[in-house]
Write a structure and sequence with these properties.
By secondary structure, the chain is of the alpha+beta class. About 20% of the residues lie in helices and about 45% in strands. Strands 1, 2, 3, 4, 5, 6 and 7 form a seven-stranded mixed beta sheet that branches. A hairpin with a 2-residue loop joins strand 1 (about 1-15) and strand 2. Pfam families: NUDIX_4 (PF14815).
Length: about 130
C-alpha cells in the first residue's frame, strides 16, 4: 500500500491555534483541519510545511517543533501525518484553498468538525502543552 507523507501546522497566536475549513471543491469539504500538505521528494518536513503554508495561506511560517506523527489509513493508501508547532509567521493570511479560518483555544478546538486524521494531532498537542 502506498504511503504518503503529509505535514500539518499547528499555528499558535496569543494562546490560540488556527483551524482552517476545507472549501467545497476538495476532499472532506467543510471539515476543519490544520493546514499543510504533501512532502515532496527532497524536502524535509519543515521545508514542506513552509512551502505549503505559503501556497495555502500566503504566509511565511516559523516552524518550531515536531509534535507527533500519526498514520491514517484510507482504502488505497496510508497517509502518514506529521504535526509541527508553528510559533509565528510573517505576512497576512490569504485564503487560497480554505473557505474560512478560526482562532480557537486548544481545548475548544475539538468542538469543531475536525477532519478525522487531525483529531489525534490535536490530542497530542494538548497533551504536550499540559506538561
Amino acid at each position: 500500500m502506498k504511503v504518503i507523507d503529509v505535514v500539518a501546522a499547528i499555528i499558535e497566536q496569543d494562546g490560540n491555534i488556527l483551524l482552517a475549513r476545507r472549501d467545497a471543491s476538495g476532499d472532506q469539504a467543510g471539515l476543519w483541519e490544520f493546514p499543510g500538505g504533501k512532502v515532496e521528494d527532497g524536502e524535509s518536513q519543515p521545508q514542506a510545511l513552509i512551502r505549503e503554508l505559503q501556497e495555502e495561506l500566503g504566509i511565511t511560517a516559523q516552524v518550531e517543533e515536531w509534535i507527533t506523527s500519526h498514520d491514517f489509513q484510507q482504502p488505497t493508501r496510508i497517509i502518514r501525518l506529521h504535526a509541527w508547532r508553528v510559533s509565528g509567521f510573517t505576512d497576512s493570511i490569504t485564503l487560497r484553498c480554505h473557505s474560512e479560518i478560526v482562532w480557537t483555544l486548544p481545548h475548544e478546538a475539538g468542538e469543531y468538525d475536525l477532519a478525522p486524521a487531525d483529531v489525534p494531532l490535536l490530542a497530542a498537542y494538548c497533551q504536550k502543552r499540559a506538561r
